[in-house]
């Protein structure tokens, strides 16, 4: 995915930020030139009227510099914020169409850092990298051109100095920070993972006595972030030092040239020439930081490309469907696949980095299968493998005799419409009840939603809400009890048209009566919702000692 594809940035979008930044620095250069002329001319004690225009110009340029600086910041940051928003929209829309295998191996912290810090880094390069580099280029050319009018020899010295400060120093910094930036990116990911773990699971971690250990890991990740930042400090210092050296050496060189040629010129010529050489380096002082921003954005862009995939697919993404109306027309059946496939698993060895277990399954259409095993035995990994979200270590999963790897390669979306997977930590969005259910079936009517809510025992709850299905769950999952959350997610699954349902701990947080009711519901041969006949596979913890199967 290219930078332009991700952010929507066009060349003409840079015109106003670069123009305003250039005018700001030209105002500073002009202020330096006029001030130098005014100081050296006042030293000669001419009539006051001879200085009036210069005095007024100094005041005007001093004010205009601040005004143009404000316009510069407004234009560049406005562009960066628009590009950041577009980058997030592009990333999320690409992910919505991408194979789920692209994110199945990524933890929440890794996803969070890629979609927040990495997107910010890509947008930040506009303010800290692209615009400063273009402004420095234009300003340097104008500075050298004006200096050449006063002294070609001084212009040559200034050119060499600007090349050192504007090209060599950023190159040194960019090369030096590559390793530290990789460390910093890894530290950001680890820190996000650790903080997410603590914030999400603090109550359960405290009960199990593991909260202090997780807090220690979060503190260690924070120290790693600090260490990574400190590792890049020498490169920053080297860039700043090289810029200062180039500025000082250039000023000294221009002074030598000016002193040599002074007999044929005025004091004003000498003062303007030397101070102009110093002022010209204001534009290049931001370039070492620009090199850091570019290096950081390059790494962030690579990680975002790994996440969102093919730019062509991104450009061809369809517009999201309109949300269903509050008062829907008479119930229309949700489109469903033609038949419930037979699911088989032959010598299926499942796992991530190594085998966790082996199963053989032969599930005709419409059967129920419950897998009971202890924590850490790979129940979730088994479901991910059956859903085609991760490849098996060995063996094969087949639908009606066809390997799901072939189905995933041919039409991954059709595979995911056939097999619906409900993870244990499925998300409840901060939006209306209707929109949360529409995740399972965007075209489902209000009548269908009420039907599945009644089936899972949430009819009284939704009827008691102030706006019914239109009530916003302002706290997301925090707006619901654990049992209500599980029932809402089960209702979402019943609205899907998938003929195969894979449910990971679907009855967790339900009381004994609720668990029994939901087990009886999903044991029925004719389920409520979009499709009556389905194959249902449930994995859960054992409820009694020795209960496995």
Automatic annotation (TrEMBL):
GO cellular component terms listed in the entry, alphabetical order: plasma membrane
GO MF annotation list: ABC-type transporter activity; ATP binding; ATP hydrolysis activity; ATPase-coupled lipid transmembrane transporter activity
SMART domains to which the protein is assigned, alphabetical: AAA
UniProt keywords, alphabetically: ATP-binding, Cell inner membrane, Cell membrane, Membrane, Nucleotide-binding, Translocase, Transmembrane, Transmembrane helix
Residue ranges crossing the lipid bilayer per the database entry: 14-39, 130-149, 155-174, 242-263, 269-295
Entries under Gene3D superfamilies matching the protein: ABC transporter type 1, transmembrane domain (1.20.1560.10), P-loop containing nucleotide triphosphate hydrolases (3.40.50.300)
Superkingdom of the source species: Bacteria
Cell compartments where the protein resides: Cell inner membrane
ABC transporter domain boundaries: 338-548
Membrane-related topology note: Multi-pass membrane protein
One GO term (biological process): glutathione transmembrane transport
Coiled coil spans: none
Domain ABC transmembrane type-1 intervals: 18-296
Recorded family membership: Belongs to the ABC transporter superfamily. Siderophore-Fe(3+) uptake transporter (SIUT) (TC 3.A.1.21) family.
PANTHER family hit by this protein: ATP-BINDING CASSETTE SUB-FAMILY B (PTHR24221), ATP-BINDING CASSETTE SUB-FAMILY B MEMBER 6 (PTHR24221:SF654)
Protein name: Thiol reductant ABC exporter subunit CydC
Species of provenance: Corynebacterium nuruki
Gene symbol of the encoding locus: cydC
């Amino acid at each position: 995915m290219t930078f332009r594809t991700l952010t929507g940035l066009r060349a003409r979008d840079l015109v106003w930020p670069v123009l305003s930044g250039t005018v700001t620095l030209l105002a500073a250069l002009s202020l330096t030139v006029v001030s130098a002329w005014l100081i050296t001319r006042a030293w000669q004690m001419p009539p006051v009227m001879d200085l009036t225009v210069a005095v007024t110009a100094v005041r005007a340029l001093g004010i205009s510099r601040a005004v143009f600086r404000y316009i510069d910041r407004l234009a560049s940051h406005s562009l960066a914020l628009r590009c950041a928003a577009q980058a997030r929209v592009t990333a999320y829309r690409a992910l919505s169409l991408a194979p789920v295998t692209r994110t199945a191996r990524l933890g929440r912290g890794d996803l969070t850092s890629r979609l927040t810090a990495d997107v910010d880094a890509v947008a930040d390069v506009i303010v800290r990298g692209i615009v400063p580099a273009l402004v420095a280029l234009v300003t340097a050319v104008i500075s050298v051109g004006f200096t050449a009018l006063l002294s070609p020899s001084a212009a040559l010295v200034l050119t060499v100095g600007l090349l050192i400060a504007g090209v060599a120093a950023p190159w040194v910094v960019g090369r030096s920070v590559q390793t530290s930036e990789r460390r910093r990116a890894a530290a950001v990911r680890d820190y996000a993972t650790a903080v997410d773990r603590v914030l999400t699971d603090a109550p359960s971690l405290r009960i199990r006595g593991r909260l202090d250990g997780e807090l220690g890991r979060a503190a260690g990740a924070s120290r790693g972030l600090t260490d990574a930042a400190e590792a890049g400090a020498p490169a920053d210092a080297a860039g700043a030092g090289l810029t200062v050296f180039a500025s000082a050496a250039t000023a000294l060189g221009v002074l030598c040239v000016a002193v040599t040629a002074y007999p044929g010129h005025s004091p004003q010529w000498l003062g303007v020439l030397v101070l102009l050489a110093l002022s010209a380096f204001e534009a290049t002082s931001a370039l070492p930081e620009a090199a850091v921003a570019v290096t950081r954005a390059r790494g962030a862009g690579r990680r975002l490309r790994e996440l969102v995939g093919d730019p062509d697919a991104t450009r061809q993404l369809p517009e999201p469907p309109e949300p269903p109306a509050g008062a829907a027309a008479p119930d229309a059946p949700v489109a469903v696949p033609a038949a419930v496939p037979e699911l088989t698993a032959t010598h299926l060895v499942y796992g991530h980095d190594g085998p966790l277990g082996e199963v053989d399954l032969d599930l005709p259409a419409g059967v129920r299968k419950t897998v009971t095993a202890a924590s850490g035995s790979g129940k979730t990994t088994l479901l991910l493998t059956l859903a085609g979200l991760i490849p098996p270590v060995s063996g094969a999963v087949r639908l009606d005799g066809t390997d799901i790897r072939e189905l995933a390669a041919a039409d991954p979306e059709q595979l995911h419409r056939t097999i619906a997977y409900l993870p244990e930590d499925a998300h409840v969005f901060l939006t209306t009840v209707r929109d949360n259910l529409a995740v399972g079936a965007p075209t489902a009517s209000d009548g269908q939603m009420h039907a599945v809510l009644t089936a899972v025992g949430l009819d009284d709850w939704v009827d008691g809400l102030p706006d019914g299905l239109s009530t916003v769950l302002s706290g997301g999952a925090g707006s619901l009890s654990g049992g209500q959350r599980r029932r809402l997610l089960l209702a979402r699954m019943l609205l899907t048209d998938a003929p195969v349902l894979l449910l990971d701990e679907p009855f967790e947080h339900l009381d004994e009566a609720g668990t029994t009711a939901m087990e009886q519901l999903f044991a029925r041969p004719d389920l409520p919702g979009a499709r009556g006949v389905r194959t249902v596979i449930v994995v859960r913890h054992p409820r009694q000692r020795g209960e496995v199967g």
